[in-house]
Amino acid sequence: MDINGNDARPTPRRRTRLALTSLAAASGLLLAACSGGTSAGGDADGSSGGGDTLTVWHYFSDDNQVKLMDDFAAKFEAEHDGATVENVFVPYDQLNSKLVSAAGAQTGPDVVVFNGAEAATLALGGALAPLDDYWADFADAGEVSESVVHTIDGTTYAVQGYVNLLGLWYNADILAEIGVEPPTTMTELEDAMGKAKDAGYAGITLSGLPQSQGEWQAYPWISSEGFTYDDPQADALAAGLGRVRGWVDNGWLSQEAVTWDQTVPFQQFAAGRTAFAANGNWQMGTAASDADFEYGVVPLPLSDTGGVYLGGEGQGIGAFSENPDLAWEYLTATYLDAEGQLLPPEIVGSLPSRADAAADELVTGNVLLEPFAQTITQFGANYPSPAVPAASVADVQLTVGQAWSAAIGGQKSPQQAADDAIAALGPLLD
Amino acid sequence: MTTTLAPTAGRAGSPAAPGPRRRRPRQTRLLFMLPAAVFLGVLSVYPLVTLVRMAFSKVTAATLNADWAFSGLDNFTAGLESGDTGAAVSRTLVFVVVVTVLGMGLGLGGAIALRTRGWWSGALLALMVFVWALPPVVNGSVWKFLLADTGLLNTVLLGTGLRDTPVPFLYDQHWALASVAFVNAFAVIPFNALVYRAALLTIEPEVFEAAQLDGASKAQQVRHIMVPSVRGTTLVLLILTLVYGFRSFDFIYVMTYGGPGTATNTLPFLGYLQAFVRYDYGLGAATSVIAVAGVLVLAALYARSIRNEEKHG
Fold first, then answer.
1. Which of these, A143, A146, A144, A148, lies nearest to A159 by C-alpha position?
2. Distance between CA atoms of B309 and B237, rounded to whole angstroms?
3. Measuring CA to CA, which of A178, A412, B216, B261 is 20 to 30 A from A369?
4. In the beta sheet, which residues pair with residue A308?
5. pTM
6. Which residue blocks in B114-222 are alpha helix, DSSP H?
7. Tens of pLDDT, residues B4-63
């Protein structure tokens, strides 16, 4: 554009041209942004590089979880001369997109540590390599619980080295002050939260985020009211959502929970001003380091229909790994190894998926792990529910997570949130 | 694009005099444009074409890396029938209005306040540019802390007795949309102020001296000298701010994740959820195309109205 430099103010025609040029450039930028800025990430900064180097993509930022990754890397490197493990952090919300994009470019990591519930998404996106041959030859396969082997359309793509689940953390000092025992029924829990509020404390913390974390947190409470994915009924869903919204109305739960992921509410609990936290076994390290009060865990006080998801991270081999055999050796030396499986309970507080490791004194002698082990027996539910088709898992989790958030945040009444969610779930569950 | 230059002195047909006003041959100018054209083509035109193609195809995680089946308007109708797109359009319009009004108004106000060439205005501008240059994730996280129940704003409000309960900035459906829109506006004000200030500094000081001699007040100077002088700048900034408002993704992602429920799902965030959470890339692309179309329509309307205004005085 050739504008006379003596004239600071463009003429009308120039002004329009200038505007349109700016618009074109700006629209271009907008479209580039809208077209999904995920890069494959498959180069020097994280894709399979061949040789004796293994790249492991994960989404952990918590100190204890990062330490576990580092310890697994150290264990493998110590047992395999010349091997190097590079742990690469990818934010949780970007991991799946990056993996699928990388697969499109025929690249990606050697090992993927991901939310086990999303195995179907990654497998359908072509990001995971089949493990059938490796699994068939794995001598210790019989030790691993079948509920943590992720098989999609007859092909095994991932296995979990440990299980994570929710329990009810309680502040023993507050319970002693208000004169109640750790609750075993919903009535006892609500009674205790009421007394805690009267004494100037918050009742409970949990996550009401409108996404998969919200659905994970919602499931125990909605299933306790009779909701299932096999036969989803609006009334049961509304009852579950309504109960928790009632906690907000009573001042036992902060409505701010809709902005919290699962880390924030536990930090709130660890600050010592809250009676209960619905949170996971993986918070043990945080509790030990941050809580300066007596605390304990009991199973969530659910009804007979209640279910607690058995979650945790799945481990698989990248579809375009240049070292698939070495990657499998890494998995069998760490996540699937009897000795390796004792690191997660020790460092993070996760429960082993191997029967022999689960029977170890390190696990059975841990008073905090015991309620979680009891929960597995009493309420353990497959994650995701087998009733949800593989291709719909992400959709279902988002739909229920948004309903959970809408009810807690007061965007919709519990009944309206439930009705909308059931309407959306219909075609997804067919 | 060229403009007519004043004829150079000399006989008709004589070679152009050497100097800064000599025209470069057309091919040379095209050569200079080539890198920018290639850059724009690769980074803008190609993604745009891909986006539009995706919007009219059935693309999921399973088919992303395979052939895309043409699906006509299915993605658009699916979004509209579910009610998600319509609701997101309404929220986006509210969002864009708040961001544009605050961003333009306070940008111009800031520029007028910082029109002087003193050191303090330079320091304040540097601080504003620092705020503008902060990554949205950092900016958004800081604001999330500030707006929390135990954050600075609520602490002050409760401490001064102005309120008995915290303001639900990020967890009430109406407050949340207003809050993320405000933070988006906050982030664009420094840029707008900077550009406006550059435009204001081109006004000759004699113009203000003459106005003062004629008895014009400060407000009259703003209304009759400054505002008309920055009209061209306003057009460009308005379009950029509109585009910025329509791009409302990063702050929402950091501060509310579209919640509570779906209360802050604007078109770009809805597109993100559809494409990168639900893995329905076709549906997400269709939503993004609607967002882009909205920007183009608004910009075209505004450009035409400015043209008409100038034509008819």
1. A148
2. 18
3. A178
4. A380
5. 0.84
6. 119-133, 136-147, 152-159, 173-200, 205-213, 218-221
7. 333 333 344 444 444 555 666 888 889 999 999 999 999 989 999 999 999 999 998 888
